[in-house]
């Protein structure tokens, strides 16, 4: 049985293709509405899980997957239609790919699951990434609603926070790995 929080997360995943199609066909108002629906379901699924005590293992995996799918696909499409710079797309996508690959390699090599717990910088990076997406969509919808300087500032802040959080996750992964790998006498 699918509980309410997981159902809301599933709705968010199902909105992604519609969002991308609207962007591809320059239907920016509709894309913005779909993005807002996705953001609302993201907030509601977490609230429902906590308030209704319906936190599940499926939800703990499904929610971040839904978030990453939305961010990845949004950045790639917005980069493709030149609403945000390609270099920012590369930074955002590369950081998350490195995190996922790093966790996968650790699991494959050691057999232990490394859970990259969000940090303050990581959460700030995610918030800036979403704010940049929203600002780019607003700018596409009506360029007069948002000064170009505001979007440029968000882009710069997002890039800096994403790089910093990537470095932080990399460092934490190496520390975690070093603490779990037995050292041999020749390593000293």
Keywords, please?
single chain; 188 residues; 6 helices
Q: What are the SSEs and their pairings?
A:
Blueprint: H1 4-24, H2 28-51, H3 57-80, H4 86-110, H5 120-141, H6 148-180
Helix pairs in contact: 1-2, 1-3, 2-5, 3-4, 3-5, 4-6, 5-6
What's the shape?
globular
How much of the residues is beta strand, in percent?
Answer: under 5%
Give me the Rg, rounded: 19 Å
Gap from first CA to last CA: 54 Å
Count, helices: 6
Task: Tell me about the largest β-sheet.
Answer: none
**SSE succession:** HHHHHH
Walk me through this protein's architecture.
With 188 residues, this protein is mainly alpha-helical. Helix content is 79%, strand content 0%. Helix 2 runs antiparallel to helix 5 and helix 3 packs across helix 5. The model has no long low-confidence stretch (mean pLDDT 85).
